[in-house]
Amino acid sequence: MELIVALGLIAFKVALLIAILLLLPLPLTWLERKIAGRMQQRMGPMRVGWHGLLQPVADGIKLLTKEDHIPAEADRFLFKLAPILALTPPFVVFVAIPFGETVSVLGAEITLYVSNMNVALLFVFAVIGLEVYGVIFGGWAANSKYAVLGSLRTCAQMISYEIPMGFAVIGVVMLAQSMSLLEIVRAQADVWNVVYQPVGFFVFFVAGLAEAQRIPFDLAEAEGDLGAGFHTEYSGIRFAFFMVSEYAIVLLVSVLVVILFFGGWNGMLVPLPPLLWFLLKVAFFVYLFIWFRFTFPRYRYDQLMAIGWKVLLPLSMANIIITGIAFL
Amino acid sequence: MSHARHGVGAWIGWAFFADLVSALALTFGYMFSRSVTMQYPDKEKWLPYPRYRGHHFLTRDDEGEIKCVACELCARICPCDCIEVIPYEDDKGSRHPAKFEIDMARCLFCGLCEDACPADAIALGQQYEFSSFSSRDLVVGREDLLGKPGKARTGGGVVAARLNTEQDVLVETSERRGYNWWRNIRRT
Q1: Residues with Cβ within 8 Å of residue A328, at least 6 apart in sequence
Q2: Is residue A110 part of a domain?
């Protein structure tokens, strides 16, 4: 009986997580377009619903009803597989992400995470690394110049930035003496990691920007020179999959930054519910992503590589060494 | 890159991304600025300036008689042959158009008819919303032309749009010198 209840609870949590992640692009696209509009002295969407609130729904219906076009020369199997491969890893990662300790619902203590892995951080990085397959397959299968170039760039970018990203969190792991995200957050109850690891935070955040392929590192879908990059040839619902995956990764990087460097659900000064604290911090970082997008121009490809290998990598290694020396 | 960096302070600023931060501050400031968007078909629309060349109109004199003397100079000068005038003589012996048709689908709004007119009878007014599903509907006759709105007097203001989806409409016709497009844009 207890097993059934536990399994049911996990199934419910997973379903809830999937629903939230699938629906998340709706408010996020609206917010992004609104913020973009405000920053450019426009209004953003105004016509569908109150202040354009229903615009993402209209866009979703449009994408669902559009022709699902597959290019004649495409590798049909890979072409169909790629959006799913791009969509799955960001969803899978959230299994390991804690959103808080526990909440009591109807007298029962319910944990705010699906599973508390002791190697959660490793799991997160391993699964996020898989995301590049969707992009590469999508670009390759479409059999189009733009798509191939976009996916090649993404491939190089992802590999280059995964390294400093992985190194940047080692300082955090040293501080918490654990790879469990739950333990890492607990270790930050008094002082947030960003105080001890400002360089680590900087490297992680910049690499996260690159990992999410957002401006200023959105070389993969540089509209100016590559059409739309790796998803040039995609239309309809398959294109929507790529978009959902992009927003899920934006959320994921924000969540990881908050958990690793900004104390997770640990509050500061103002006593708010832990979950609310967590959501506020995540919302701030999501806003930061959007804010960056409409402020900075795109880096050139060689600059991107130079930043990754010549700046972020030495910085993250120096960070590890200095943290290690401080521990000795 | 245009400015040379001088002193230690500038290098510290460079190391901590002072330029990126100032860019972020700029966009953040703009986030709370008023938008310059005119919600045209929904709420408000722009009032053209007096020199705007929109839909033609024909004028009447003080006695209410049409000013046009049907000299056909406008039809002659029209570069796209879109004006057709057929004259007649009334009881008092003066010449007026029996038929005055302008094919708005062909008109290119050059305003030459207005310049050519010896009687100041035809001019290009302020109306610009006359799109149609059929090009036949764009052939406008004499009586319609007499009823069209004339030149704008103030111009540049914002008035209620014809298609009102919401009631609260911004009206700023009182602004004599027109809509100031630059009022929300900071210039440094």
Answers
A1: none
A2: no
